[in-house]
Amino acid sequence: MSLENLYREIILDHYKHPRKRGTLEGPGVLAVELKNPSCGDRITLYVRREDDRLAAVRFVGEGCSISMSSASMMSALVEGKTADEAEALAQAFFRLVQGEPLDPATEEALGDAVALQGVHQFPVRIKCATLAWKALERALAEGGAAAESPAGTPAP
């Protein structure tokens, strides 16, 4: 099996069997809703922080296989991490999908998300792959609930 086929299987597995799909409620839960107006992908990311750790991460949304599998990969990867660790992973992922080379340790740290490295070959799909990661970045930066699209347009 080629590496490309393996990556395709990982992406489809996360799309068909998403990890961490669902909502979170209660005190301390941050909710960030983003949409990609160019293709219709939407995500609401829920994060519960305990001290500096992302104790629970869930998402709901709809969109293409790239967008939803990326949300699944990201949610599973960052749950339990500190805010700084999650931010470092997000920055590494942004570099990965832009086609920048990463050192082997960073690629390994990204886990299944490394399967999306080929997205850089399709620039219009980069927004799909990064939507959930942008929601994470917003949650980490604001430390509170937000409901805006990446372009600054209020989300319905």
Can you lay out the helices and strands and say which pair or pack?
Blueprint: H1 3-16, E1 29-36, E2 41-50, E3 53-62, H2 65-78, H3 83-97, H4 104-109, H5 123-142, E4 146-147
Parallel strand pairs: 1-4
Antiparallel strand pairs: 1-2, 2-3
Helix pairs in contact: 1-2, 2-5, 3-5
Account of the protein in words:
With 156 residues, this protein is of the alpha+beta class. Helix content is 44%, strand content 19%. It has five helices and four strands; from the N terminus they run αβββααααβ. A four-stranded mixed sheet has the order 3-2-1-4, covered by helices on one side. β2 (41-50) and β3 form a beta hairpin. The longest helix has 20 residues, at 123-142. The chain is globular and about 45 Å long.
